[in-house]
């Protein structure tokens, strides 16, 4: 279960995560949910972040986890933009800037770096920009690596 989960398996993982008595077990189950490749299941996982079923840090972490897989980074970013106020309320003050940046960790496209910076400038105080710039630089670096390495990987795959 996880990446290739069916809707029924996703539901089982969700029930197990909600019932898990230990934070570590719950965290592993939530991580499995976040790895779902199916965009509909990723959206269901993201929606769990707005429930009161998990501790705030684990709820907020779902968006970052879905993004980090890269499979549904677009869906995680869309969800973050739609619900950023509610999600930011889940993280503690000093972690807000780090959290905001973590929600775009799955991107490797320069246009996304610019979009993220515009969003931060429009919605958050200027002190958020330092960490946002770091995240944008990481996205740009990932885009550079993709441009550099993807042709060789594609040639290898075609052999």
Furnish the topology, listing elements before pairings.
Blueprint: H1 7-19, H2 23-34, H3 39-48, H4 56-69, H5 73-88, H6 96-102, H7 110-123, H8 129-158
Key phrases:
159 residues, mainly alpha, Zincin-like fold, 8 helices
Globular, elongated, flat, extended or rod-shaped: what is the shape?
A: flat
Approximate strand percentage: under 5%
Strand tally: 0
What is the CATH C-level name? Mainly Alpha
Q: What is the average per-residue confidence, as pLDDT, rounded to a whole number?
A: 92
Q: Say what the CATH topology is.
A: Zincin-like fold
Largest sheet: none
| Low-pLDDT segments | none
Distance between the termini: 31 Å
Number of domains: 1
User: Number of helix segments?
Assistant: 8
Query: Portion of residues in helices?
Result: over 70%
Description:
There is one protein chain. By secondary structure, the chain is an all-alpha fold. The chain has one domain (7-158): Zincin-like fold. It is 73% helix and 0% strand. The protein is built from eight helices and no strands. It has helices at residues 7-19, 23-34, 39-48, 56-69, 73-88, 96-102, 110-123, 129-158. Helix 2 runs parallel beside helix 4 (56-69) and helix 4 runs antiparallel to helix 5 (73-88). The longest helix is centred in the C-terminal third of the chain and has 30 residues, at 129-158. The two termini are 31 Å apart. The model has no long low-confidence stretch (mean pLDDT 92).
């Amino acid at each position: 279960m996880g990446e290739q989960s069916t809707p029924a398996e996703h539901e089982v993982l969700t029930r197990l995560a909600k019932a898990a008595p230990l934070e570590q077990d719950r965290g592993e189950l939530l991580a499995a949910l976040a790895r779902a490749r199916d965009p509909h299941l990723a959206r269901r996982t993201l929606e769990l972040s707005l429930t009161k079923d998990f501790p705030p840090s684990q709820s907020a972490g779902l968006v970052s986890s879905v993004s980090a897989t890269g499979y549904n980074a677009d869906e995680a970013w869309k969800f973050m933009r739609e619900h950023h106020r509610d999600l930011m309320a889940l993280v503690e003050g000093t972690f807000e800037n780090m959290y905001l940046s973590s929600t775009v960790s799955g991107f490797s496209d320069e246009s996304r770096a610019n979009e993220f910076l515009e969003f931060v400038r429009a919605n958050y105080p200027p002190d958020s920009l330092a960490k946002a710039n770091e995240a944008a630089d990481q996205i740009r670096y990932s885009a550079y690596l993709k441009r550099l390495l993807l042709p060789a990987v594609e040639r290898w795959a075609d052999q």
